[in-house]
Automatic annotation (TrEMBL):
Domain RNase H type-1 per the UniProt entry, residue ranges: 2-77
Pfam families, sorted: RVT_3
GO molecular function: nucleic acid binding; RNA-DNA hybrid ribonuclease activity
Domain of life the protein comes from: Eukaryota
Entry's transmembrane regions: none
InterPro entries linked: RNase_H-like, RNase_H-like_dom_plant, RNaseH-like_sf, RNaseH_domain, RNaseH_sf
Lineage per the UniProt record: Eukaryota, Viridiplantae, Streptophyta, Embryophyta, Tracheophyta
Name of the featured protein: RNase H type-1 domain-containing protein
């Protein structure tokens, strides 16, 4: 759901090219067509593919969780609190340490 929401957000901002990263190799395989999906999440992945085709160029990329802590923290926060939010410009202060750790681990 995080991949879908991110793609929808990028599309709403009019980005013609997007690099979409996930620490879930399954999500990347499904979104790139490497694996066919026939489970309960099929509709979500179908929407990812649909939205990515309307963006233009989307590069799906797997990254390890050790270099993706900020995304993990945000997804977990949104899931646990049942909220969705976005910001432009400076990231929330509580996220900065995770962003620094992600950059250092790359």
């Amino acid at each position: 759901m995080a991949m879908r929401d991110g793609l929808i957000f990028a599309n709403s901002l009019g980005f013609p090219r997007v690099e979409a990263e996930s620490d879930s190799l399954t999500v990347i395989d499904y979104c790139t067509g490497q694996t066919r999906w026939w489970d309960a999440a099929a509709a979500i992945f179908a929407e990812c593919v649909n939205v990515s085709s309307s963006i233009g160029k989307v590069k799906f990329k797997h990254c390890y969780r050790s270099s993706n802590q900020a995304a993990h923290v945000l997804a977990n926060h949104g899931f646990c609190n049942k909220i969705s939010s976005c910001w432009m410009g400076e990231p929330p202060g509580c996220l900065v340490p995770n962003l620094v750790d992600d950059v250092i681990s790359v």
